[in-house]
Amino acid sequence: MTTADERRRIGALLQTERRRRRWSKPEMARRLAPHVPDQCPDRETLISYIKRWEAGKVSISERYQFAYAAALGTDIEELFGQKTAAGPAPLAAVDVLRLPHSNGRPADMEYVETLRETNQALVRLDALHGAGDVLPLAARVFRTANHKLATGAYVAKVERDLMAAAGETGEIAAWLAYDADNQAASRQVIHEALELSRAAGDRDMELFELGHLAMQSLHLHRPAEALRIADRALAGELPARVSALFEIRRGRALAQLGDESSALSAFAKAKNALSESISPRDPQWAWWVDETELTRHKAMAHAQLGQWNRTVPLREQVVLACRGEYLYGKLDLAQLLESLMQVRDWTRAEEVITDIAGIADAIAPGRTANLLRRIFAQIGRTEGVPSTVSDAAAYMRGVLETTTSEAAPR
């Protein structure tokens, strides 16, 4: 029988391998099903198993171990044996990271291939360590590749491939800067990445970058800008998942502009688009555009409209759906706490603060930490807050200052 620590180690590894391939949990279930011997459970049951396995709540029986190995195309011993090191590896020890050469040699096809491998490694490192730790490395890789393009230090025949790979690197670096709440850097890099992807004719990555730019415009409260980006994208023929993404961006922008009716109409269009199955036309990156993402942004829209009572149940849904997820789990909890504070549900707010306290050491500097600081400070200024809640908020402010200052780069 496996120990709790071993279950968590294996769960973290399975989650990392799934995310490295950019598969959602439903996609993981779809790929597992053909390899499960005897009778495979239905799709929803299999997804629930995947959630519990990745959270380390239950052991994985041998029949599913073999299915995982087959679906991931790896050796069963590498996944479930003792050869895999426990826990996330330090940055320097991650063997998938082989940086492109920066020794003055002209970029060739080997450089391009290594750059693409590095892009995948950066995504994996983000899942393991968070944006703040990985951002300096991603920025350096992007600047090096972009400098080669700007100075002509490349073999002519690889120009388009190099631009496409560098555009992808820029998107990753821009996301990391966004999540680390370095918005100026993110905005600069995403514009540079967008130019490269357009020049390379990489329409899929260009759409991803436009989606990022619209997202950041909303974060910076520039709704008219976000709306123009979304409308221009939707003017063309888009795959269903991409169309859903830009309808979500439209809905958020219209909510910020105070147009509730049009915002809800945009979200309804997004929901309709999401009802279609993922098709070969959908870009590889579109796997995360799903019902949970739609619910997350509907909640943000209602919050921006001041409709906090409608926000709370939506954010409860998201937290439940993303329990144990690295990418959004912490931020979703923080946003739920914000909503509970606004409706003065102090009993539930205290429960959420307790949940946040349990993961405080994993909250790095960035968007989540900054939002929590604002929430805890506001709780401290609000009259009529039960002492247990105000004391917990004050305590967590101190904990957060300690953990995020220790995690900050020196």
From TrEMBL:
SUPFAM superfamilies: lambda repressor-like DNA-binding domains, TPR-like. It comes from the Bacteria. Gene3D superfamilies: lambda repressor-like DNA-binding domains, Tetratricopeptide repeat domain. InterPro entries: Cro/C1-type_HTH (IPR001387), Lambda_DNA-bd_dom_sf (IPR010982), TPR-like_helical_dom_sf (IPR011990). Residues 48-79 form the HTH cro/C1-type domain. This is HTH cro/C1-type domain-containing protein.
